[in-house]
Amino acid sequence: MNSMHNHLIFGIVVIVAGIMMIIGPLISKSQPTKWAAVAFTTAGIAGIVLGILIICLFFGAAYFSSITLTLLEHYKTLLSGFEVGVIVTLAIAGQLKLSKNKKKLEVNSSDKNSNN
């Protein structure tokens, strides 16, 4: 499999992860704080946009001018940095936890009442 196909698969994975970040807190047993729910939603939307951008770069690279490709690569880098920043902030704030029983990522609601 060539590396260009890896970009397409990565774009699809990013879109799915973005959708999961939006609906994950909504279907979780423990509800996140308001600011964390907004952060999850914002990161999910940015993830979907990033995935679409990666797919556009995959299919349109032959048709775009070099200036357009440079601009799209810039936005891809910007959105990637935003995603990493939001996820690190949520992890440091304790809104993400790894459940020992289920071995999956869950939303932590330990300070739900303190930030409402």
Describe it for me?
The protein has 116 residues and is mainly alpha-helical. The protein has one domain. The chain is built from three helices and two strands. It has helices spanning 3-27, 34-60, 66-92, and strands spanning 96-98, 105-107. It has a two-stranded antiparallel sheet with strand order 1-2. Strand 1 and strand 2 form a beta hairpin. The termini are far apart. The model has no long low-confidence stretch (mean pLDDT 81).
In short:
The chain has 116 residues and is mainly α.
- Enumerate the spans where pLDDT stays under 50 for 5 or more consecutive residues: none
Provide the helix percentage. 55-70%
- Given the structure, what is the number of helices? 3
**What's the end-to-end separation, in Å?**
49 Å
How many β-strands, per DSSP?
2
Going by helix content, strand content and strand pairing, the class is mainly alpha
Strand content: 5-15%
Q: How does the major sheet shape up?
A: 2 strands, antiparallel
Number of domains: 1
Q: Characterize the overall form.
A: elongated
Radius of gyration: 17 Å
Q: Averaging pLDDT over every residue, what do you get?
A: 81
Give the helices and strands as they follow along the chain: HHHEE
Placed side by side, the strands forming the largest sheet appear as 1-2
